[in-house]
Design brief:
Two copies of one chain form a homodimer. By secondary structure, the first copy, chain A, is α/β, with parallel strands linked by helices. Chain A is built from 18 helices and twelve strands. In chain A, helix 10 packs parallel to helix 16, helix 11 packs across helix 16 and helix 12 runs parallel beside helix 16.
Chain lengths: 462, 462
């Protein structure tokens, strides 16, 4: 069980025309990386995501709820947004059978369907509630702060529907709140009404929470091997104790991306798994990388790479043209799965037709792997920076390893960029404007700022 | 029924610190736009997507197949990649009920499920074939060229499975090829074996093909009002006869993005619908914008904006931090749905808790609309370029209007950038490398180029 990183195609020597990170640049980055490493790991008590993989007490909370829920519910409805939804969705897509919710109960091994409402679109909520049998539905309300506007709105609607269908007392038994151990509205309601809860540790932020009950509880409910998930993450965390770029995969990932962005203008950083089950992992990564690193930097300037999700081989027919010939402002990180499910050979048929004949005898696993290597080689031949994360197979262990790799890399990158990777001050203004427009008490100054926005007479409207 | 564009927040006057496109720049763009407009519309006979909305003969082909298939099949399996898959997926997500494939037949109005295989991941294909009852499954094989490697591989496997399950003669009756009227392997096989076909006109490229049978046939099979879809597109095409930026929405969209990129360094162009059903429309747009415009420009330099998909309100908890505080290199185009399904008020509960009390009485439709306007205002307040496409409601007419708007805008933008928006030369090298690695006949020179790639002794691997 391994996770590897090959970043040869990020480096001068593999790319033409002097492109690429030079060996001197790489070696000079060792010292800033050591400082970043120290700055992150000294905060082990404070950065909760570092100890989630070995937090057995927290695991026990999720396992107890999953055990209680087993055979009681056919459907789980998760209310959450951002970090509260992207992790569970990524885990379901990666580790459950494709189109999980469309399978029969027996095809799902008796485990429930999982519905995620991660938006406040009235059509989605109405459709979901219209379809669910609430008698057999468990509702997870997931919010670290316990007061997220979208999740509170969903909760009020779903709670009312549960109460109408089941009565207030039974409705309460269909709820689990996943939230801060002490603070916030959900915690207050839980105390008042005796709603079941599991904790998101106070020192774990939303986008770093997938290995807390935010991801672990839904995963356990779906029958995913959550202990293997945590073991993969623990393995990476252990390896990352080294402050050498020769041994620390998350560190090397962070440094290569930081150098590519800050020294070589590679501002857009693509994550492109070659595997359908990792499709939504790229979206989870986008939040982590974007919300953590897109910040006002130490000198007041705006910094941070822009992550871009992609999927191979599919995006060879969509975004790869841009990656090959568009502006030289990107890195592409592939995720390659080296040990595929053994699939049979592509059948021989139409052997006389050139477009089909050569395929016979190859397997699809071989084809997708060759396409990844061919794309990497083609990008390199055109001077386009790329790297490959390799995993043996798609299972819980490797998902845990991948997710913790990205979380650690994000923490390191925050120090390298000189910003705080764990806050999100930029979303506050929009939130305050929304409060003002909704008439929430205490939003007078936001209302005044909203009213003072320039509204030129000359509108540009068609 | 209208589609509007408000780009006030792209312009100087609405943004602080002199940011934004100046009125002088905008007025100076009128002449290049007139030239771009003329260059596109003079090719009406050659650019097939311009006449797809009124091509009744082509519509009749799809309608005839849909009529024949009705009540015969419970499942449709679409094999295709890139433009052959993104359009049908976007239409299903936008215009069918959420989680369509998980609904009972009666909830689907008797229309079939739609499964799309848009990759060569062996796990996905095995899972899909393992689940389908092939006796009641119609297989669409969609490839303009008729020889796309991924689609041919899928076809060989699925054809074998059909033959094994149903026998060769019946298997043939479960196939429809959607391909070029004359050329390519699929056409040859269809002629040889009498497989049912519908045409993708020779002058319609993959990413411009959603209003050809590529999108129209699956849409018709799913019960989508394809005539309304085409009518919306026809309306936009008709409006776009004007070469005035005051009347041509696709033109204004193309010009604002081109000026923002080429004059103001806004290289990353976000499309952010505030509506779950438009989630996959953003992915369809990404292919169109990226593959059409990411090119080697007239002076040999690399040009083209980088499209980035997003979803509101969800991405306020993911990417918006980066859009607000990260590099000033982005535009954000919202899609706002002004007439939501009327949904009831959010129920009053926990009125004493500040985080929930203020929500009571508002509707979700109001909330998501306020969040869009608040985010637009917050971005503008921080000097971030943004614009809003407005539609009345999400229905077939407005989807057709949106898709044709983007297709026309892409064609105009190609002329403005001075590149060919209708080819994709950049994907050729990777394709050739893959052929070489698969041992396809005639790939010797690609093999030689592959072998000659620099492979430095110093690997960077962990």
């Amino acid at each position: 069980m391994t996770l590897t990183l090959d970043f040869t195609n990020m480096m001068a020597g593999a790319l033409p025309d002097g492109a690429g990170i030079s060996l001197a640049e790489w070696e000079a980055a060792a010292e800033p990386f050591r400082r970043a490493h120290a700055a992150v790991h000294v905060r082990t008590g404070d950065l909760g995501f570092l100890t989630l993989p070995t937090n057995v007490a927290l695991l026990a909370q999720s396992e107890a709820v999953a055990e209680w829920a087993k055979d009681r519910f056919t459907d789980v409805l998760l209310l959450g947004i951002g970090g509260s939804a992207l992790g569970p969705i990524a885990l379901r897509t990666a580790l459950c059978a494709p189109q999980w919710n469309a399978l029969e109960t027996s095809q799902r091994g008796g485990y429930p369907r999982l519905h995620v409402l991660d938006n406040v679109d009235p059509a989605s909520i109405a459709a979901t509630l219209g379809r669910l049998n609430l008698t057999h539905t468990l509702v997870l309300v997931v919010s670290k702060s316990g007061g997220t506007v979208e999740t509170m709105a969903q909760y009020l609607i779903v709670r009312e529907a549960l109460a109408a269908a089941l009565g207030e007392d039974v409705a309460r038994e269909h709820l689990v709140f996943v939230t801060d151990p002490e603070k916030g509205a959900l915690r207050a309601i839980a105390r008042q009404e005796g709603v079941r809860t599991v904790d998101i540790p106070a020192n774990v932020g939303g986008r770093f929470s997938v290995l807390s009950p935010v991801g672990i509880l839904p995963a356990a409910l779906l029958g995913i091997d959550v202990r293997a998930l945590l073991a993969g993450a623990a393995h990476v965390t252990e390896q990352a104790q080294s402050d050498s770029l020769k041994a620390n995969v998350p560190g090397a990932f962070a440094v290569m991306q930081w150098l590519a962005d800050s020294r070589h203008g590679r501002h857009v950083q693509v994550l492109m798994p070659y595997a359908d089950p990792l499709r939504d992992l790229a979206l989870w990564f986008v939040q982590l990388w974007a919300e953590s690193l897109g910040k006002i930097g130490p000198d007041g300037q705006s910094v941070g790479p822009t992550p871009l999700p992609a999927l191979g081989a599919t995006d060879q027919h969509s975004q790869v043209q841009l990656f090959m010939e568009g502006p030289r402002d990107k890195t592409v990180t592939f995720i390659a799965v080296r040990g595929r499910l053994s699939d049979g050979p592509i059948p021989a048929r139409h052997a006389d037709i050139a477009e089909l004949g050569y395929l016979a005898g190859h397997t699809l696993g071989e084809l997708i792997d060759i396409e990844q290597r061919a794309t990497a080689g083609a990008l390199a031949a055109r001077g386009r920076f790329n790297a490959t994360l390799g995993i043996d197979t798609i299972d819980a262990w490797h998902l845990g390893a991948l997710m913790q790799t990205f979380a650690l890399a994000t923490a390191y990158a925050g120090v390298l960029y000189g910003i705080d990777a764990f806050d999100q001050p930029g979303v506050e203004l929009g939130k305050q404007f929304a409060y003002a427009l909704l008439g929430r008490a205490g939003s007078d100054s936001a209302r005044a700022e909203w009213d003072a926005l320039p509204r030129p007479d000359a509108r540009f409207q068609i």
